[in-house]
Design goal:
Blueprint: H1 6-13, E1 19-22, H2 30-38, E2 45-53, E3 58-64, E4 67-69, H3 71-78, E5 83-85, H4 88-95, E6 112-116, E7 125-131, E8 134-138, H5 140-147, E9 150-152, E10 155-157
């Protein structure tokens, strides 16, 4: 498996130290499968979700694997009327990544990135490296440094 993706190129270009973790991807397996295959806590596996507001402006929300996004709470904190997940083909058009392989790094278009605040308190995170079946680990401080995300509190129990 080739491990070079727009995401890994972005991380290298920004001097981020990261470790790659390939695993056997399962369609619709999500973070539950990747955390089990890598033997890590699902809370530290971060989902990259593409949402859009009422004007169809896309944004990325980073969320713990074992939590869901409260779209009402997220919209309120962003000062918009509503947010909802993009359809897979729309998300792919914005990011350049297939759903299941979406990374916040190296997206085709520059998108606003929001990050659940508690993610920044973890010692390290596992996040998609730009293709299905490939996660990378890095300290959340590096994610904050290179993406400058808006920190939000919109997690609900998964």
């Amino acid at each position: 498996m080739s491990t070079e993706t727009p995401a890994t190129q972005f991380l290298e270009a920004h001097g981020v130290a990261f470790t790659l973790h390939p695993y056997d991807y399962e369609d619709r397996g999500g973070t539950k499968v990747s955390s089990e295959k890598l033997g890590v806590d699902e809370h530290a596996v971060i989902k990259t979700l593409v949402f859009e507001d009422e004007t169809k402006t896309p944004l990325i929300i980073l969320m713990h694997g074992d939590r869901q996004v409260s779209s009402k709470a997220l919209a309120r904190q962003l000062g918009v009327k509503q947010v909802q997940p993009c359809k897979p083909e729309i998300a792919q058009r914005h990011t350049g990544f297939l759903v299941g392989g979406t990374s916040p790094f190296g997206t085709k278009k520059t998108l606003r990135v929001c990050c659940e605040r508690s993610i920044t308190a973890l010692p390290r995170i596992f996040i998609n490296a730009g293709k299905r079946g490939l996660l990378c680990t890095l300290p959340p401080s590096e994610l904050v440094r290179v993406l400058a995300p808006t920190l939000v509190d919109c997690a609900t129990e998964g």
